[in-house]
Amino acid sequence: MSGNGIVIEGLQKRYGSGDTLVDALKGVDMQVAPAEVVGLVGPSGSGKSTLLKCLGAVIEPSAGRMRLGEEMIYDNGWKIRDLRALRRDKIGFVFQAPYLIPFLDVVDNVALLPMLAGERNGVARKRAMELLEALDVGHRAKAMPAQLSGGEQQRVAIARALVNHPPVILADEPTAPLDSQRALAVIAILNDMARQYETAIIIVTHDEKIIPTFRRIYHIRDGRTHEEAGEGKSPHELIKTDKA
Amino acid sequence: MISLAGRDILHGWVRFLMTGFGLGLLIGVTLSMAGIYRGMVDDANVLIDNSGADLWVVQQGTLGPYAEPSSLYEDTYRSIIGIAGVARAANVTYLTMQVRHGGGDVRAMVVGVVPGGPGEPGQPGFLVAGRHLTGGHYEVVADVKAGCALGDTVIIRRNRFRVVGLTRRMVSSGGDPMLFIPLKEAQEAQFLKDNDMLLQQRRRTAQNPGFNRPNVPGLLDAIIASQTTSVYVNAVLVQLKPGYAPETVAKDIQRWQRLQVYTRSQMRTILVDKLIATSAKQIGMFLVILSIVSAAIVAFIIYTMTMAKIREIAVLKLIGTRNRVIASMILQQAIGLGAIGFVVGKIAATLWSPFFPRYVLLEPGDAIRGFIIVMVISVLASILAITAALKVDPAEAIGG
């Protein structure tokens, strides 16, 4: 694969040692192209969260390779010294709950990332506002997170994940707290954003109503992934069907 | 970069302000304790300065009129006046006692002075109302802290005194207001016995064959007369002529009169280092304890505030926030809390200090030192919370 996107080969993660040794990931292979949205599904304890943490450079894998765009970030050891900067600049996160910073207003929640990257406040806020407008929450820019609905909060969280234009977004059950209409709307947004910003998006989910939207799905079981083709239905179409 | 600490404080400003207010009251108490110590030292200095004396002549082997009992014959001052360098010398008595005024008791230091004008040794240096003692009997010049007004009556022992003058900041080293009365009445108050005692003393003297000799007429009367007359004072206050060194004159008085003499600096040492030393240590202990309590409170508050934001801190770390940004946020909040606490504490200490029974002296230098200490405490207190925040695993934001 060339350009942006993410390629994972033989990724392993072991916890403990001796009698307590647990192989959480036993050799995961994945690749997600730029502008592609893939699903990652699997039962509890299958290794989804461990994989997400490895991809997010939060925990160190035990072996394998990870390439982010043109850059090899892990090859049986981190190839990047500053993992914080990697997370800030190259990876976007969307969580099950939005986890917005409660003491920052909406625009600053989004602008915080570019500010952390050294961008001037005015420029960072302008970028944040553009994204908020694109996600249809621009009118709530000055509101505090507690004043937003669940759907609005999740859209702000998506804006935060996108604001530094990362090549990869990792979404951990982003639709879990939402009803089907809002869940499909969020997936539609992620699809649109993936296309618009050429971002590879991995969505970890149990949500039956959004699984039909994926073109490709990775099933993870006992620490190994198996790829299968999804239905690839348009979330916009599903929203209309659901309403009907 | 926006101030995360500032935004967090603004977001919960009521809680932050109330916490700062509570901490401020504690800091106010700490500042007041320091003020009480300063007040004690200042009282001691004022006592020395207002006495108008350059030397204190007291009984041999005693620490002087303020720290230990001292008795001198009342005519001692005559021989002191004759010593080279002495400009003026005056008898004085000091007695801390309960006096009655306005139907209640007032703890006061009754000072017996030779009536005269201002500038005489022992006389109050200035009045805020009325006049000095001029020679009339049963008159008193009182410090306003005694609660007296001009024309009031003060009862000392069996005698009634009329208030003719008022002073300010004339208090003993114990903080009791001073009442200046004529020396003769002060001697009576201090040394004379009550009527029953006198009667018994005369009877005992008369029964003593050594005092009541049939062949020596007038002996018994002379002895009884000597017993009922007070001829003692506590100290002689001496003012020096210009150009004479206090140490030299003090040495001459000690040498020729066989008395104890203290200079101003020596008396200051006795009052500050000996008389209020225990109180100073007590206050020092309180200051240390209050500082520790303040530090513990700031640490607890900041730690609790940080623990309440664990998820947000995990998210901040996950999205790439550097440790120093998170540590700076917590540090700024601790310093902010300390600053609010200090401002509230300073205002509180200033407002409530006039209501303290003792003089509370809040010096700007102490306020600056207090502010620095509060800031240092705040920084130290934030270490626990910063350590906890830096240990937060960004993976907590992902869960699983």
Overview features:
heterodimer, A: 244 residues, alpha/beta, Rossmann fold, 6-stranded mixed β-sheet, 4-stranded antiparallel β-sheet, 10 strands, B: 400 residues, alpha+beta, 6-stranded mixed beta barrel, two-stranded antiparallel sheet, 12 strands, 17% strand, elongated
Question: Would you write up a description of this structure?
Answer:
The complex is a heterodimer of chains A (about 240) and B (about 400). Chain A has about 240 residues and is an alpha/beta fold. Chain A has a single domain (about 5-100, about 165-245), classed as 3-Layer(aba) Sandwich (Rossmann fold). Helices cover about 35% and strands about 25% of the residues of chain A. Chain A has seven helices and ten strands. In chain A, the strands form two sheets. Chain A has a six-stranded mixed β-sheet. Chain A has a four-stranded antiparallel β-sheet with strand order 2-1-4-5, covered by helices on one side. In chain A, a hairpin with a 2-residue loop joins strand 9 (about 215-220) and strand 10 (about 225-230). In chain A, helix 3 (about 105-115) runs parallel beside helix 5 (about 150-160). The mean pLDDT of chain A is about 90. With about 400 residues, chain B is an alpha+beta fold. Chain B has a domain at about 5-45 and about 275-395. Chain B contains twelve helices and twelve strands. Chain B has helices at about 5-10, 15-50, 75-80, 185-190, 195-205, 220-225, 245-255, 265-275, 275-305, 310-320, 325-350, 365-390; strands at about 55-60, 70-75, 85-100, 105-115, 130, 140-145, 155, 160-165, 180, 230-235, 235-240, 260-265. Chain B has a six-stranded mixed β-barrel with strand order 3-4-9-6-8-7. A two-stranded antiparallel sheet of chain B has the order 2-10. Classes of the chains: A alpha/beta (about 240), B alpha+beta (about 400). The interface between A and B is medium-sized, with 33 and 26 residues.
